[in-house]
Design goal:
By secondary structure, the chain is of the alpha+beta class. The protein contains five helices and four strands. Helix 3 runs antiparallel to helix 4.
Length: 146
Amino acid sequence: MSKPKTLGVLVHKIHGDPPNFSAGVVWGAMPFLMGVEQGATPEAAVAALEASFRRLGYEPAVVLFDKLEDAQAEGRRMLAAEDLVRHLELARAKLPEVLAGEEGTPDARDGEVLDHLDRTFGAVRSVANGAYDREKREAEPTIRGC
């Protein structure tokens, strides 16, 4: 079974006769392990790179860039979002216990706080996945036990 993997890929033209194109991983995998694939067209270069990932047991989802600066900025945004998601997951797991206090069960006000955290968590996860969609975000399940 293939594991999904999102990759930031830089595609650029290699001057020559005839010109070729290269597709290289900028983020999402170790570039020095994956290297760069070439092709006669940008699509062929990306297809070759995807094929190399499939041979390793991954199902690549490629985000294409034509400027290194844009690829790096998106990679930094995704790393920051993933870091925020990790911290929110820890807070989300502990919050019901903290809010319950001495009584052991969250009250209505605690429920409002948990609902707000759920919406925040869903929005950050959507941004991290690059798939922010308000309708999908609202449909996500809430924190269990509240």
